[in-house]
Amino acid sequence: MNQVLILGKPNSGKSLLFNRLTGANQKVANFPGVTVEVKRGVSGSTMYVDFPGVYSLQALTTDEIVAIQQLKKAVADKDISVVLCNLDATRLERSLVLGVQVKQLADRHGLPVVFSLNMMDEISGSGLKLDVEGLSKDLKSRVIAISAKTKMGLSELKQALDAEATSGKRQLEAPIGEANDQVDFESNSGSLLRAKELAKKYGPNSSVILKNQNRIDHWVLSDIWGGAIFLVTMLVLFQSIFSWASPLMDGVESAIGNIGSLLTPLLPEGIASDFVNDAILGGFGSFLVFVPQIFILTFIIGLLEDSGYMARAAIICHKPLSLVGLSGKSFVSLLSGHACAIPAMFAARIIESPKKRILTIMALPLVACSARLPVYSLLIVALIPSVTFAGGLVGLQGLAFFALFVFGYLVAGIVTGILSKTVYKEESDAPFLLELPPYRLPAVGPLAQRSIKSSWAFVKEAGAIIFAVTIVVWVLGYFPNGGEDLGSSWLASVGQFIGPIFEPIGLDWKFGVAVLASFLAREVFVGTLGTLYGIEGADENIAGLASNLEASGLTMGSGVALLVFYAIALQCVSTVAVMKKETGSGVLPIVTFVAYSVLAYILALAVYQLF
Amino acid sequence: MNLWDLKQHQSGTMKAFSEEMPEAYRHRLQEFGFQKGELVTCLRQTPFSGPKVYQVGDSVVSLTQDLASVVAVEVSE
After folding, report:
1. Domain limits, chain B
2. A283 vs A26, which has greater pLDDT?
3. B24·A319 Cβ contact <8 A
C-alpha cells in the first residue's frame, strides 16, 4: 500500500483536504495548531497520514517540538512513498517557508514531493492570478491547484500522488551532492529568502485578500463593537444549546417513551419488565435525551473555529485572562472545554508559556463541559419556570444556564488568579504570539459529520460507564424486595450510611447515592436518579425525570446547592488521568481532585444556608 | 523606535530584533515575515495595552508588548 505523508502550515486547509481524500471525519479547525495528533485514513490502495500543521521545521511550542520530531522520523521511514505538502495559495510566501524546507528534507531521503495549492477558489474569486506552472518548474515538483472546500482539482491531485508513488519509486539512497549543492533551506534564512523569491515571482497580490480580512477585523476587533460581538456570540452559543436542541431532545424523549410502551407488553411481568423500564429506559434513556445538546455545542464551537473567529476571541480575551494568570490562547482551550475537558487539555499545548499552560489545565475541570449539561438541564428544568422574553428569543432557563457557565469561569478565574501569584509565581512564562487566519465560510457538511462523530464518541465512552453504574444501582435498589419498597432496599442502606454528608444541604439519600455514583463521571447522576425514580414508580412517564424531581419536593435551596456542587467538583476519572499525562505530575491531579471536591461541598453548603 | 510605538494604521520599516528577543521567537517572527527592510503596519490597537495586530507581507499577526517592544522599526514619514 502506498503511504502519503500530508504536511503543511496551520490553517492551510490541510485537515479538510485529508477528510476529502479519505472520507474520514477528522477534526478540522481554522485556529492555528488544533491538530495535535497524527491521523490516518485509507482510500483505495493509498494510506494518508496527516501530520499536525507546523510553520517550519523550527519548533516554538510543546506540540510543535513533538510534531517536528515525528515528522522528521516519518520522512526517513521507508514505508512512506510520497510527501503531500499543502500550500495556502492566499498565503503563498508563509506556506512556502515550510514548503521549501520540506522539499529539501524529502530530497535528502530520495522522497518525491507533490504540492497541493489549496484555496485556489479564493484566488480566482478575487480575480487574482497565480502561475502554477512556473512554481512547479521552479520547485522541480508537481504543483496541483485545488480547493479542498469546493473539491476542485482533487482527482488530479490523487492521480499525481499515485503517479509519484508508483512510477517514481522512492530512491532510498539520495544521490550525494544533488541535495547538498543548494542553499541549506532547513536553516531559517535560506528558506525565508527562497519563499519570498518564489512568492514574488509566481504568487498573487496578497494585499487584495488581506483587505477583506482587515475590513471585518475593523469591526470584530474594535474597542466597543468587538466586545459587544464577543458577548452576543457567547450568549447565542449558550442560548442555542437550550433553544435549538429542545425539539431534538423532545424527539429523543418521545422515542424512548414509545419504545417503552412497545416493549412493555412484550416482556413478562416482573423483574425483566422492571429492569428494561427502570434501568435501561429510565436510567440510560434519561442520559440519551441530552445528546442533542452535546451535538449542538460541538457544532457551534466548530463554527467558531472554522470561521476564524476563535483567534479573534483569543485576542479580545488576552488582557482580561492575563489578569488571572492565563493567556488569550487559554480561551481556545477553555471554550473547547465546554465540549470536553480532555481534548481541551491537549489543545492547551498551543500555549507557549509553561506557567499559563498548567494554569489553563487547572482551570479546565471548572469549565461547564458536556457531561455537566445533562445535570444542569435536569435541575434547571425542575427548578426554573419556562418563561421567555423578547418574543421567545431569551428564556429564563437559558439565562440560568448562562449564569452557571459564567459561575464556572468565575471560580476558575479566582483559582488561577491566586495560584499564579502564589504557587506558580516563579514558573517560567513566555510571550503571546498569534497568527490571525483569514475569515472563511465553514464547510457545514463536514462540520456536522464531525459533530455527530464526537457526540457518538461521547455516548459510547460515557454510555459504557453510565450503563454499568445504572445496572449496579438498579440491582441494589431493586433487591432484596423485588422493587416493592425502595426505602428498604440495599441501596437505601448505603444511602442512609452516607446520608449525614448530604443532610446539611437538604438532600435525601437518593440524591446522596446519585452524587456518590457520579464521582466516576458526573453524567451518571442523571442515569442514577432516573433508575431510582423508575423503581419507585414504574408506571410513570420514565423520560419525565424533571417532573419526578419537582414532585419529590426538591427545594430551590438544595437544587441550587447541587448545581454549585456540580459546577466545581472534579467528577471525571478520565480528566484526572489526562491531567496526570499532560502535566507529568502524579500529585497535581490528586490535589486538584481533593481541593475541588472540598470547595464544591463547602460552597454548596454555604449556598443552601443562604436560601 | 520599536514596533509597539507604532500607532494604529501607522507603518514602519523593520530594522532589527533586540538581543532580548528569545531565539525561538525571532525565528517564528521571521517566518511570519518580520524581516529586515519589510514594511510593517499596525492594523489595530486593543484597549488596556492588550495585544496589537500587525500586518507584514501576507501575514496578520497579533503581538503583546513584551515581544513588540524588542523589534526596532523606522518610520519614514
Report:
1. 3-74
2. A283
3. no
